[in-house]
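Might I ask for a little of your time on a matter of protein folding? What I wish to show you is a protein chain and, alongside it, a tokenised description of its three-dimensional fold. I should value your view on which stretches of the chain appear to form regular backbone elements. You will find the record immediately after this paragraph:
***
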Amino acid sequence: MTTESFDTDVLVIGGGNAALCAAIMAREGGARVLLLESAPREWRGGNSGHTRNLRCMHDAPQDVLVEAYPEEEFWQDLLKVTGGLTNEHLARMVIRASSTCRTWMRRHGVIFQPPLSGALHVARTNAFFMGGGKALVNAYYRSAENLGVEVRYDAPVDRLEIEDGIFKAAWVKGRRIAARSCVLAAGGFESNREWLREAWGRNERGEFPADNFLIRGTAFNQGVLLRHMLEDHHADRIGDPTQAHMVAIDARAPLYDGGICTRIDCVSLGVVVNREARRFYDEGEDFWPKRYAIWGRLVAMQPQQIGYSIIDSKAIGRFMPPVFPGVRANTLEELATRLELDVPTFMQTMNEYNAACRVGRFDHTALDDCHTEGVTPAKTHWARPIDTAPFYGYALRPGVTFTYLGLKVDDTAAVRFNDEPSRNLFVAGEMMAGNVLGKGYTAGVGMSIGTAFGRIAGRNAALAAQGKPAARGAVADDTTQHMKEAA
């Protein structure tokens, strides 16, 4: 009888936050772990290098979090932005896990900074990493390697061997790598222009909207394994291929890896017009961290997939400045000309908006009573006439962070085939985020999902490598003790 030879116990495919959490957890569970990162070492970490924080539930002030952000409020925030397109069981599991993960993260080198103040409104809800996502990624790689995780760079996986829902091996540059279990954490398909084109198709104007999308993160998320799993292995899927974490960013941003500094954060303090110089959505609907991620899709639906954020000097100093300066003018007419917008239409839009403003007590840190009347779309909060020179305009494009089409899971993080969970193939991060994020986004929740499911997937991959069944639910705070109990 021939005994199958394995190159490793747990194979982790991907190199960002979710993959690293999985690799570390699997190694802590006693497994030999090999992590394959498709990017070169200098570009390792995928989109995680561009992150800054994770959203955390807490019932009272905790270390770097002020006041309280209870489970129900977190859930309602998520429910609102997703419009109900979320799995409540999995979402609440992520929410609860977010309250306990920081101790584990610190143990693996992540340093959190003191609470932020100012206009971001997130000191209560989000824990920020000192040095941002790149520092987090580097800390995890150091910890993983110190624990004995083997890491290979420039190692893109192009196909998997799966038999009857059981993972057998992965192929990298013609080489077969066999493992007892596997975690898929290789990201979405946002960097694959042809797939984006296919998903979005043509609009009523005959345009391919995807041709004008910019990618906020890595160029390496081509969706190769996601498509392979969906089309070749017929894994159960979740999500709409047109839904994504999509932000309005500076139209001058690079095609890839522009990151957070290209985001335009003055939308709620002014108005946004399209190429036809007309407003198209309520700029003051809610606090910016709860609404910034809807604006990429809104701009994507406009002619030529472009918009223009217009502010006056009263807004300066009340938002995080982007990396590129805005177009500046001393009059609104001059600003329209410099932005190449139709001047009469632009002036009509601005005059109607200014006349509709009902200014009460302006407070950009609260849902104030400054609103419009008699103009469509309305502006619900922070509505003040744009009348104080100099004036500024920022051209906006859709900036895709990650896509929501992915693999369907349960609370074991197992990949499912015909609604049956695999015994040894798990998924985490962007490849399964659509289970929680059917649409929309709220700041930091992607890292919450990746951290929770990365740890779950890693724990269960280690158990599978030992021939043991997967454990259900989130990982306990005391990881080592939890692994002993699970074993």
Remarks:
- The CA atoms of residues 271 and 440 lie 21 Å apart.
